[in-house]
Design a protein that fits this description.
Blueprint: H1 15-18, H2 20-29, H3 42-50, E1 52-54, E2 57-59, H4 67-76, E3 82-87, H5 93-105, E4 111-113, H6 120-123, E5 125-127, H7 129-135, E6 142-144, H8 146-153, E7 156-160, H9 167-179, E8 181-184, E9 189-192, E10 198-204, H10 215-218, E11 221-226, H11 232-250, H12 259-274, H13 293-310, H14 317-328, H15 332-347, H16 352-365
């Protein structure tokens, strides 16, 4: 499970490399029993996700929300059931999946990305067809899927957006989750799973009905629904934390947006998402697209890039206005009208504190 040293040129590090000092500190102070195939105890894994201190090192919280949800997720991975994280876009499903894998097994890179084009071979195994034709079936010609690699090593495989996969691809998981083996019929042998093996899958609630999971497959998962942030303050804290982390990783030269700017962006997103103002006194026409927490993080990170490259390094209203229009208007005909309505009926009437952002948004629309 040892990883090569991370290169400073990498655009994005996997969680086990990004938080390597934290993982080592937690392992060093861990006095609780460590399950087979795990690198730390469940309590230490919980601290890695929710934050705390270990040996004088600050453990940054990776998930801000209900700690009980994280406890249930970790407890699930101790059993023979796989874990399915469901939620709206931006509820940190993939982020939680990656960090759970990093904490438990120190490898979050065994990933299958679910799409309409994902094949059964990507779940099970495939072949190097040049070698297969030249030499016939052999271990050398066998191409193992991330799931098979995790099974052999007793690790964790991740399947992102499982509901985007075709039904026959999803069903390939049933025997793996039930029998804990992959049969390689061409080699007349089976690949059994070692202790510690599990699967963490994610599904987007906006994809409901795309490729609904069968009841048989759902029974193999313990399903956890990750809620959107309950309060404005919680969502602001999540956005601020992730913007700081991403901007540091990209070495952006601009300052992190002020708390007031973050709160305004999150307020706009929460109101458009819910279809009403925060005080519930006025209805709002929602856009057709998803205005998620992840979109808010992306918007503010891009605003920092604009301010650092073409401004004085301080994020201003015009930097935010460009991102707001792009985040809301996904369908030119429908969303442009909804955004115009929000600007005129809500933002314009909010008082002096909102006027500079309103003017910047109006100027951007032209």
């Amino acid at each position: 499970m040892a990883k090569p040293p991370a290169s400073p040129d990498l655009l994005r590090l996997p969680a086990e490399q990004l938080y390597a000092p934290e993982i080592e500190a937690l392992k060093k102070e861990d006095k609780d029993p460590v399950p087979a195939g795990w690198q730390m105890s469940p309590k230490a894994a919980l601290k890695f996700i929710t934050g705390g201190k270990a040996g004088g090192i600050d453990i940054t919280p990776k998930y801000i929300g209900h700690n009980r949800l994280v406890e249930v997720a970790i407890a699930t991975l101790l059993t023979d059931r796989a874990l399915l994280l469901i939620g709206e876009p931006g509820t940190a499903k993939s982020w939680l999946s990656e960090n759970l894998s990093a904490a438990i097994y120190n490898d979050s890179t065994k990933v299958v990305q679910g799409t309409a084009g994902t094949s059964e071979e990507q779940i099970r195994y495939s072949w190097n067809y040049a070698l297969l034709l030249a030499e016939g079936p052999s271990d050398k010609a066998l191409i193992k899927s991330p799931v098979m690699i995790a099974m052999e090593a007793g690790g964790i495989a991740r399947i992102e957006e499982i509901s985007r996969c075709q039904s026959e691809v999803q069903d390939a998981l049933i025997s793996i989750l039930s029998e804990k083996i992959v049969a390689v019929n061409e080699l007349q042998r089976e690949v059994p799973a070692k202790r510690g093996f599990s699967i963490i899958a994610t599904a987007n609630t906006r994809d409901k009905g795309v490729n609904d999971m069968s009841a048989a497959l759902k029974r193999r998962f313990n399903i956890l629904i990750l809620p959107t942030p309950a309060t404005l303050e919680t969502e602001v804290e999540i956005v601020k934390k992730r913007v700081r982390e991403i901007s540091a990783n990209y070495a952006l030269s601009a300052q992190v947006p002020a708390d007031e700017a973050v709160a305004k962006v999150v307020t706009v997103f929460r109101e458009l998402r819910s279809g009403q103002t925060l005080d519930a006194k006025q209805k709002i026409k929602p856009p057709t697209g998803v205005v998620s927490t992840a979109e808010a993080i992306s918007l503010l990170t891009n605003a920092m890039a604009l301010a650092g490259s073409f401004g004085d390094g301080t994020v201003k209203e015009p930097d935010i206005a460009a991102g707001l229009a792009g985040a809301v208007i996904k369908d030119e005909e429908k969303d442009a009208a909804a955004w115009e309505e929000y600007l005129e009926n809500i933002m314009k009437k909010r008082g002096l504190a909102w006027q500079s952002l309103y003017k910047a948004c109006r100027d951007f629309l032209g």
